[in-house]
Amino acid sequence: MPARPLILVVSPGDEIYRGYCLEQVAASYDVVLLTGAAPSWEKPYIVDHAVVDLNDSAVLLAAGRALAERHDLAGVVMWDEWNLVPTARLARALGLPSNSVEVTRGCRNKATARTLFARHGVPSASSMKARSLVEAGLATMTLGYPAVLKPTAFAGSIGVIRVNQPEELPAAFEFASASASRSREDTAVLVEEYLDGPEVSVECVTHRGETTAVAVTRKQLGPAPYFEEIGHTIDAADPLLAQVAPVAAAAVKALGLTDGVQHVEMRLVDGRPRLIEVNARIGGDMIGHLVRLATGIDLPRAAADLACGREPDLTETHHGAAGIRMLHPAASGTLTERHINQPFAAHTPWLRQVQWIREIGDQFLLPPDGDLFTARAGFYIVTGRNTAEVNERLDTAGDEITVTTQAVR
Fold first, then answer.
1. Are 263 and 201 a contacting pair, CB within 8 Å?
2. Where are the alpha helices (DSSP H) in 263-386?
């Protein structure tokens, strides 16, 4: 029996949100791991590993070289937004397939991406960088209100806020700057025109410069003026996919991406797609898992194949729909109760997963004081024949789940 190819995974993430990625890659590849902590849940899926400071790109590069000396690696893959650029640098240093470091930097920097979208005629949002409140004020004089302020190089909708009038600008700039200052790449704030319309993402796979849109994800957002994503649905038969696919492909091409999986975010303004950003990795919030439940397409396996210079199999083997909804308490405070009606859960096959990520006694902070890392108690996933059925089932299951906090006095 021929040996399976070896692939290096950089920063596997946590088991809850990214465990499915490692499991699906390990089904076809022997996996070597570069990780920030000693492996635990990852052990069944790996053949070797090195523990390094993932925030130190020089250390990461040296550890990757050392693993490459011990193993005949076919490729390097990641799904961690924070290590996109170091992973590209490592793959290039090892002579393995990868987008260039400069291209991946462009994906991480929203200002650079906006410039490239404009240059290549991709419909996007007008924007200006601001390193001070004065500069932000000047930007809004050009762009008008409402405006959106966001960190230039961050992720997860953290630090993103809408501003409706000048009086709100100082507090909003402080809010966005607090997250921007945590970036290792660019600490500026981006001021953008507000794109008014429903938000979607397009899950794409690019091989040798040709992009295939495999699914469109419809978003549910939390309360304004913040942009936290609290739910997603994917339908294999969504008619919107044909409309948004060409714009997503144009955005991927504008950034210079030639291979990999992309999570392309956009809004539909008057029914027309306008780009928000391109993430050069599998979408978070279990979106890759939803893609597989709805279509049968394996995005982690596709990412690994592309990282090894192979053509991925994008054959649709299922034709349904799936959705996820995040569980949030109604207010910040101490978690006092979390449960689901057990008879309902036991007799509901379409309720695929209920996942708690916080324990009784944990503290919750909702925006603006907190973010997705401090506001979520867990999530649940359902499947159905179409989007309407999935949304109905998400509502039904939500009525059977309780999350209660008590305010801290």
1. yes
2. 287-295, 299-307, 342-346, 372-375
Would the pLDDT of 254 be above 50? yes
Is the pLDDT reported for residue 188 higher than 50?
Answer: yes
Q: 32 and 73 in contact (C-beta within 8 Å)?
A: yes
The average pLDDT across 291-320 equals 98
Residues 6+ apart with CB under 8 A from 395: none
Rounded Cα distance, 271 and 197, in Å: 8
In a domain, 340, yes or no: yes
Phi-psi region of 333 (alpha: psi -120 to 50; beta: other; left: phi over 0): left
* Distance (Å, whole) CA 69 – CA 149: 45
The answer to whether the CB of 244 falls within 8 A of the CB of 200 is yes
CATH of the domain at 392: 3.30.470.20
> Does any domain span residue 20?
yes
Same domain as 281, residue 179:
no
pLDDT digits (tens, 9 = 90+) for 358-406: 999 999 998 888 787 888 999 999 999 999 999 999 999 999 999 999 9
- Determine contact, residues 77/71, Cβ cutoff 8 Å: no
DSSP tag of 328: -
CA–CA gap between residue 63 and residue 55 (Å, rounded): 13
Distance CA 245, CA 212 (A): 8
Q: What are phi and psi of 372, to 5 degrees?
A: -60, -25
* Structural domain span for residue 131: 126-193
Q: What are the pLDDT digits (tens) for 103-127? A: 999 998 888 999 999 999 999 999 9
In a domain, 1, yes or no: no
Question: pLDDT tier at 157 (50, 70, 90 boundaries)?
Answer: confident
| 56 vs 195: CA distance, rounded Å | 36
Calculate helix-pair angle for 287-295, 299-307, nearest 10 degrees: 110
Query: How far is the C-alpha of 300 from the C-alpha of 306, rounded, in Å?
Result: 10
Condensed to tens digits (0 to 9), the pLDDT of residues 204-221 reads: 999 999 999 999 999 999
Euclidean distance between CA atoms 305 and 129, whole angstroms:
37
